[in-house]
Amino acid sequence: MLTKYLTTLSVITALIFTAVGCGSSMVIQNVDYSQPIESVLAPDADQMIHDQRFAIKFSIAKVLEREGMQTVDEVRLIRNRAGFYFLTAQGFNNVYVFEPGERELKKKEIIEISSEGIGDPAFNQRDRYIELVDRATGQTYNLDQTGRR
Amino acid sequence: MNIMNIYLKTYTLLLAIFLIIASSAVIAQQSDYQIQQDFRAELAELSERVELAVSTDELVELEQEISDLRDRYAEHSSIINAAIYPDTFERSVARVEENRAASAERAAVIDQLNEQVDELTAEMEVFRNRITQMSAEAEDLQDQIERSTASESRQAALIRQYRQNIEQRDNFVSDFLEELLMKYQSMDRTTQEELADAAERLEDSPLDVIKAIVAEYINVADQSSGLEAPDYIGMRAQHGYFMDVWDRIGDRLVTTFDPEREVQAKQEVEDLLAAWLASVDNRLWDSLTTAFNQNNIQLGPFTSAETFNTALNNYVDSGYELSLETNSDEDYNIYRNFRDFWNTTVKASWGEALTDGNILSQSDIAAIDIKVGNWGEAAQTTSNLMFILFLVSIAVIIGLIVLLLTKKS
Lengths: 149, 409
Known about the structure:
The structure holds 2 protein chains of 2 kinds.
Chain A: H1 2-23, E1 39-41, E2 48-51, E3 56-59, H2 61-67, E4 75-79, E5 85-89, E6 94-101, E7 104-112, E8 121-125, E9 130-134, E10 139-144, E11 147-148
Antiparallel strand pairs in A: 1-4, 2-3, 4-5, 5-6, 6-7, 8-9, 9-10, 10-11
Chain B: H1 2-28, H2 32-52, H3 56-73, H4 77-84, H5 89-147, H6 152-184, H7 189-198, H8 206-223, H9 229-257, H10 262-294, H11 305-325, H12 329-347, H13 351-356, H14 362-379, H15 382-408
Helix pairs in contact in B: 2-3, 2-4, 2-5, 3-5, 5-6, 5-8, 6-9, 7-9, 8-9, 8-10, 9-10, 11-12, 11-14, 12-14
């Protein structure tokens, strides 16, 4: 009886340890993904943009489609501290916030800035938010992945 | 009215406050990306201007502009550091400043060289003008000498003046050569190369001036009339001095002032120097023969420094041998005539120029001196005189004895 009890206990203990050992994931907290300076990128003929410095390459075709534009000369891209990408361009009405995933950028938020289109946008990295400056109007907008702050 | 004034004042104040706030808001609307782009562009422009700058003034101005750039962007240094990583704001500005300092140093050297070249240009101009003036005077005197054959005294006066003119030119050229020696004898290769770059704009380089001088000397030697042995000996001496200077600084001068055709440039000057010597020699040997002849010294024929030396030695040797053989008064007179001319004219008046002009060396003169001394001893008729005196003395003594004996008897 005791032997059976001990055997059962040992098996349960081993299973618990195995489950704990295999199931636990290492998580590093407080990662700062912030990109100090925005990237200003010119799309190629296939609407691909390639940021050599921060090593990211993707198509903006869907964004252009959403904005109803055929093409743009350059787009402005910045990543905030939380790791979300903010993208806009001259003439866009919105700022697009993307969350990176495995070989994908998933729309997190589309932040409407101006129905007239942003005249001359620029992103600045600030401590707790991304600053969008429309240098054409002098207006600034403080943004994060949830929208305007 | 008062209420209106207060209203106006308040309105103005509010408007001013609004403008200040609005303008500060506009100023604040900057793009970090643009800031670093502007910084990069301004720095690149300054860097390019530093590369292209050639004057010290320009580089001083750039020093201030670099400092202004540093001050203006210092507050954005962290943005710039992030943008230009792994480079940094401070390092990139310092790099341009270092380049500027190096350029400033180079420009200072160039400025100094330019000053030297300007000085040299002015010197060359003065020199050329003076030489041209002297040449014109010489030509004029030469013409006058040729035209004044009717009056011997006038011709003699003109020849004296002509000699003075040549002497002045020699002194002037010697001073010029002395100056060249001082400047270029100890010049190192780097300075020569630096000066060579700056000297490209020289219209008249020292090399050109040297060639012009030598050409002028050839002209004088070829065309002079009324000149005598001492004048040509003087020309030979001047040539000797010129050769000496050329041997010492010729290489440096061609490297500095004609670096692209060093060998050719050197050969050109050396050919001119050889032609000058030939022109002088063409007159010198005849004039020396004449000078010796005029003093009743008939030297054997000579056409070079070596054969002149041989002719002198042969003359003294044969005089010595003749004195040993005959020991006559005539021989003694020949000896005395040569000795006087040798000591008072050849050695005293021409001696220095003869050695400077490589006509006779000090050892040649000393050797002839010894021979002349020996000749003097051989030419002395003292031994006959003593014998005669001895005979006379004996005759007198005998006479006296005879006289005494006669008186006693």
